[in-house]
């Protein structure tokens, strides 16, 4: 088996992936807070985790992938202040918390299915595992890591000397900032809620009894309690977006390791953000782009997947419709090329020639180098443009698609009577030339299309029809 290298946020280095148990990989991914639809930035996080999982599967690991659904306890601010996002969402929509949780969980599952993201082995809802969360708070309480305030039970981060090792946090700097940043009874800026009390004289829609009083769990405890429940006290991989490094994952490590006394997770992986030109994409800001917004504008979900594939998961992506258009064109060209190759295939056979195996090795080297899928995609293009025969090209494309997830096997062969893919490609290039106001090039391309026996008929919005002359 080839070696797989992953960038571990803990060491800030690429490390060889060595599983705890031979041939198996346990992976926990922080899932959605189901108070609203996922925006396309959130979906980038799940896409990155999908690539990681597919690469593990490709390398022969049996993957147990666990994802939580946060349906309680995530407050509007990461500092344990403000309303519960779920109760806020329910008030906004005039529904119960349980109803909105169910609705947005289904919406989330449908979004990830459209993006060809393989569903987790196990989904776990925070509200189904309150008992486990209370047990973990008890464990921390018994070991002296907690203190109570008027509004909840808190983890005392000063009692855990390694606190902040993931984020390389400057604890003293944070403490200096505390005068302005927070004013409640928390002892230290970095302390965080394990259990919050329901407000006095007010019944919350979601609340439970506990040894400390009626209330609900702090957001971070669900991930430590449920990951340990399904993957054990010490497991292989934990992931999420980069925003989780300084608070959520830092707190998860503290409470899990303080309770079990063992190392919690070996590899921490974090995906960079998708940003809009105007800045951070945020659900709480109201307006945001969903996958459905893209579909309504005429893009396919897989156009968006192709767009995401082009950038390494540790680099920011700037989202713009221009960039998405470029990705859609690239994907269309890829599909056309494959259609043409499939049209030229005489009799399909399995297996690869020696020359084709070299391309496969290059592809594996890329994906196993910290999931360099952009390079993998470029290698697929090299294959399709190479001198390899149609069989090799199709077999490699299908194999690479186990990672890419673009449904390449579903592309049908070009039939006699179809507009040839090279003509479609020329027409797409002409559309781009027109959009860039390069009319000289646009005319030349129209002529080339004519020379091949086809006529272009322009339609509104830059679209076109192609007809045989
Ligand atoms: P949430 O539903 O807000 O808890 O976020 C779900 C996941 O999306 C988390 O793993 C976040 O780190 C991630 N995330 C949030 N915003 C973005 C963004 N703009 N780009 C990429 N990932 C994001
Ligand atoms: Zn989490």
What does this structure look like?
This protein is of the alpha/beta class. Among the domains are: 20-271, HUPs (Rossmann fold, 3-Layer(aba) Sandwich); 419-469, no CATH class. 44% of the residues lie in helices and 16% in strands. The chain has helices at 40-58, 85-93, 97-114, 130-142, 171-176, 178-181, 219-231, 245-260, 291-296, 301-309, 321-344, 354-367, 373-385, 390-404, 421-435, 439-451; strands at residues 5-8, 13-16, 24-29, 62-69, 122-125, 146-148, 152-155, 192-197, 215-217, 235-241, 265-271, 274-276, 279-280, 317-319, 454-458, 464-468. The strands form five sheets. A five-stranded parallel beta sheet has the order 5-4-3-10-11, with helices on both faces. Helix 12 (354-367) runs antiparallel to helix 13 and helix 15 runs antiparallel to helix 16 (439-451). It starts with a strand and ends with a strand. The model is unreliable at 176-181 (pLDDT under 50). The chain binds adenosine monophosphate (AMP) and zinc ion (ZN). Residues 30, 32-33, 41-42, 44-45, 240-241, 243-244, 271, 273-274, 281 line the site of adenosine monophosphate (AMP).
Major beta-sheet overview: 5 strands, parallel
Task: Let me know the average pLDDT.
Answer: 91
**Would you give the CATH topology of the domain at 20-271?**
Rossmann fold
Q: Span from first to last CA?
A: 54 Å
Q: Helical content, roughly? A: 40-55%
The geometry reads as elongated
Annotated CATH homologous superfamily of the domain at 20-271: HUPs
The CATH architecture name of the domain at 20-271 reads 3-Layer(aba) Sandwich
Bound molecules: adenosine monophosphate, zinc ion
Structural category is: alpha/beta
Number of helices: 16
Rg, nearest Å: 26 Å
């Amino acid at each position: 088996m080839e070696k797989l290298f992953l960038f571990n946020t803990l060491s800030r280095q690429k490390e060889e992936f060595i599983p705890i148990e031979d041939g198996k990989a346990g992976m926990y991914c922080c899932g959605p807070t189901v108070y609203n639809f996922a925006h396309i930035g959130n979906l980038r996080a799940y896409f990155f985790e999908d690539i990681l999982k597919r690469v593990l599967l490709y390398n022969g690991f049996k993957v147990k992938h666990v994802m939580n659904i946060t349906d309680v306890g995530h407050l509007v601010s990461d500092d344990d202040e403000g309303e519960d996002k779920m109760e806020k969402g329910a008030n906004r929509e005039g529904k119960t918390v349980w109803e909105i949780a169910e609705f947005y969980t289904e919406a989330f599952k449908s979004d990830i299915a459209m993006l060809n993201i393989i569903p987790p082995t196990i989904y776990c809802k925070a509200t189904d595992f309150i008992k486990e969360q209370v047990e973990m708070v008890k464990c921390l309480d018994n070991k002296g890591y907690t203190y109570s305030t008027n509004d909840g039970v808190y983890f005392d981060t000063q009692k855990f000397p390694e606190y902040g090792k993931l984020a390389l946090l400057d604890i003293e700097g944070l403490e200096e900032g505390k005068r302005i940043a927070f004013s409640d009874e928390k002892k230290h800026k970095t302390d965080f809620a394990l259990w919050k009390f329901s407000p006095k004289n007010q019944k919350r829609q979601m609340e439970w009894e506990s040894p400390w009083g009626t209330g609900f769990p702090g957001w971070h405890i669900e991930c430590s309690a449920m990951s340990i429940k399904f993957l054990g006290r010490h497991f292989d991989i934990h992931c999420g977006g980069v925003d989780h490094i300084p608070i959520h994952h830092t707190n998860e490590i503290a409470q899990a390791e303080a309770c079990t006394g063992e190392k919690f997770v070996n590899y921490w992986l974090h995906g960079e953000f998708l940003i809009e030109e105007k800045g951070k994409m945020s659900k709480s800001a109201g307006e945001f782009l969903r996958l459905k917004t893209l579909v309504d504008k005429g893009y396919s979900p897989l156009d968006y997947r192709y767009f995401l594939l082009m950038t390494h998961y540790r680099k920011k992506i700037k989202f713009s419709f221009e960039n998405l258009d470029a990705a859609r064109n690239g994907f269309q060209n890829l599909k056309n090329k494959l259609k043409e190759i499939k049209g030229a295939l005489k009799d399909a056979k399995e297996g690869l020639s020696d020359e084709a195996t070299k391309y496969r090795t290059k592809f594996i080297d890329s994906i196993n180098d910290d999931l360099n899928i952009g390079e993998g995609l470029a290698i697929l293009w090299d294959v399709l443009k190479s001198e390899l025969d149609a069989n090799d090209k199709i077999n490699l494309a299908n194999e690479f698609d186990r990672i890419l997830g673009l449904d390449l096997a579903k592309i049908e062969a070009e039939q006699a009577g179809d507009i040839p893919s090279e003509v479609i490609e020329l027409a797409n290039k002409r559309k781009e030339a027109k959009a860039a106001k390069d009319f000289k090039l646009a005319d030349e391309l129209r002529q080339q299309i004519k020379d091949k026996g086809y006529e272009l008929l322009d339609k509104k919005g830059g679209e076109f029809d192609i007809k045989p002359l």
